[in-house]
Design brief:
mainly alpha, Sodium/glucose cotransporter, two-stranded antiparallel ribbon, globular
């Protein structure tokens, strides 16, 4: 394959467009929030909380519609052993956004939080917040690395350029405009990127469908022509695995900073909910061309194409079926436009993940855990440095790590089994505390890692009911490998066990300390009733009454450091005026809080 000058020009034009939009968004909103007295660091993280429905709908959709989403959906529809029945991402993530909008968006936005970790740190303390930051960071970094890795492979299929160079250039552009404009640049470039994905893929579909080498996809959906029908089916023995994976997508798609960054940037709690529902619809719409391209791949006689007689599946290239269809079944100018769409998808995911990771570090680790007196300018510089560091780390992993997808699968599972049950507890269960949170963290981690991870060749040390051993031939060495396959829905069971452990150990610790069975002096986490028993239930309320939900109604807590730190979790300018006045009237004298 030779270097295609037209392809390089098309990609260069597209990347320059994205860069221009990112810089323009940063310039347009450089004074945003100043009139309301909003800190610059918060403006970078949540965009001044004035993201409207149009931009918000696009950027919320781009939470999940990325390179992995459109490539992965096409791959699963194409694979003979899976098919459409196993392409769970579109419906799973759409339902994830619906559930998030119904139950999580309003309480998180109405309390004026800045990051997803804020409620954990306020209720469970800075140490627990730091622990929960680890799986959240791993998920964001590995996700960015995985999609950058996919981009390199995709570009190399259509345009014969150096994979490493294409990954580095793409990452540098995403890092640069994120550095310059924060969430505003991410949100505005998402609008352009989603538009390009939609147009680019839909332009390609008619050309691919009408190619002489492609059979009628309505026939190949139900009948075997070149391979098994692409409609797919779920065998009875795989039912629990299917349910487990679907729950992972639906519920595990909620506790991500990339999602809550959009929720918390909405101009109101109701807008945050509406954006979630719009994005759910957007996810389904954006998946349609990917499903069709996967079906086209399954309906193609590859002997009649420039690809050759051996199918992508037999060449172990099923994960690149989308760019292969663009390259070999569409005219060159169409495939280049589709390529722009794929690279757009990657950048729309990579930029937001890098911003999310740096937001959590700058606020929840640097500011609230180590440097509570840090100036706004200092926090902004910490964010800029960490955007560059985390972006560089993701790029490096994409270039040198062969198991980046396995790392992402494992880390996304940890987000599901550790962070989701903790988010449920902190928002909706009264009485959970740091002791329960630590127990839940350990339970979830051990039960999930104990099940093993075939992608990382991580053997299980917990063999769940129904496990089997499969023999697979390594596609490079030809060696036969034995892999343990867990047929039990152990991810969802691990999540439920983590949630129950949080509730059980929280109440156990509360009972032991309050009844005097364990001396108060051993309450080393300051998480249960100690000598200030009368003060614990009441005072640290972020938002009170009206449509806003007070944290004191949800879960008892002990003020961690002082009233000023408690106030750090509240953006008063984001609340309705009457709520602030009511809070001021009802707030007790600050000296009552801090007798220590």
């Amino acid at each position: 394959m030779t270097i295609h000058a037209e392809g390089l020009v098309a990609i260069a034009v597209f990347y320059l467009l994205i860069l221009f939009v990112g810089i323009w968004a940063a310039w347009k909103n450089k004074h945003s929030g100043e009139a309301e007295g909003t800190d610059r660091s918060e403006t970078i993280m949540v965009g001044g909380r004035d993201i409207g429905l149009f931009v918000g709908g696009f950027t919320m959709t781009a939470t999940w519609v990325g390179g992995g989403y459109i490539n992965g959906t096409a791959e699963y529809v194409y694979l003979p052993d899976y098919g459409l029945a196993w392409a769970q991402a579109p419906f799973g993530y759409a339902l994830s956004l619906v559930v998030g909008g119904l139950f999580f968006a309003k309480p998180m936005r109405s309390r004026g939080y800045v990051t997803m970790l804020d409620p954990f740190q306020q209720l469970y303390g800075k140490r627990m917040g730091g622990l929960l930051f680890i799986p959240a960071l791993m998920g964001e970094i590995f996700w960015s690395a995985a999609i950058l890795s996919a981009l390199g492979a995709t570009l190399s299929v259509i345009v014969d350029i150096n994979i490493k160079m294409s990954v580095v250039i793409s990452a540098l552009i995403a890092i640069f405009y994120t550095l310059v404009g924060g969430l505003y640049s991410v949100a505005y470039t998402d609008v352009v990127q989603l538009f390009c994905i939609f147009v680019g893929l839909w332009i390609s579909v008619p050309f691919a469908l009408t190619n002489p080498a492609v059979s009628d996809i309505t026939v190949t959906a139900v009948k075997q022509v070149y391979q098994s029908p692409w409609r797919g089916s779920v065998h009875k023995s795989d039912t629990w695995v299917w349910i487990d994976n679907f729950c992972l997508l639906m519920l595990g798609g909620i506790p991500w900073q990339v999602y809550f960054q959009r929720v918390l940037s909405a101009s109101s709690a109701t807008y945050a909910q509406v954006l979630s529902f719009l994005a759910a619809f957007g996810c389904l719409v954006m998946a349609v061309p990917s499903v069709l391209i996967g079906a086209i791949g399954a309906s193609t006689d590859w002997n009649q194409t420039s690809y050759g007689g051996i199918s992508p599946r037999e060449k172990e290239e099923a994960d690149m079926i989308l760019p292969i269809v663009l390259q070999h079944l569409c005219p060159p100018f169409v495939s280049f436009f589709g390529l722009g769409a794929v690279s757009a998808a990657v950048m729309s995911s990579a930029d937001s993940s890098i911003l999310s990771a740096s937001s959590m570090f700058a606020r929840n680790i640097y500011q609230l855990a180590f440097r509570q007196s840090a100036s706004d300018r200092e926090i902004v510089w910490v964010m800029r440095i960490t955007i560059f560091v985390f972006g560089g780390l993701a790029t490096l992993m994409a270039l040198v790590t062969g198991t980046v997808y396995g790392l992402w699968y494992l880390s996304s599972d940890l987000v599901y089994v550790i962070i989701f049950p903790q988010l449920l507890s902190v928002l909706f269960v009264k009485g959970t505390n740091t002791y329960g949170s630590v127990a839940a963290y350990l339970f979830g981690m051990v039960l999930r890692i104990g099940g093993g991870e075939p992608y990382l060749k991580l053997p299980p040390f917990i063999y769940y009911p129904g496990w089997t051993v499969e023999k697979r031939v390594h596609h490079i060495t030809g060696e036969i490998e034995e892999i343990v396959i867990q047929k039990f829905p152990f991810k969802t069971v691990s999540m439920l066990a983590s949630f129950l452990a949080n509730v059980a150990f929280s109440y156990l610790a509360k009972y032991l300390f309050e009844s005097g069975k364990i001396s108060h002096k051993y309450d080393f986490l300051d998480a249960v009733v100690s000598k200030h028993s009368g003060e614990i239930m009441d005072k640290t309320t972020l938002v009170t009454r009206g449509n806003n939900i007070g944290l004191s109604e949800m879960a008892p807590m002990k003020p961690r450091l002082s009233v000023t730190l408690a106030a750090a979790f509240t953006r008063r300018d984001t609340l309705p005026k009457e709520t602030v006045e009511e809070e001021e009237e009802s707030s007790p004298d600050s000296s009552h809080h801090d007798e220590e």
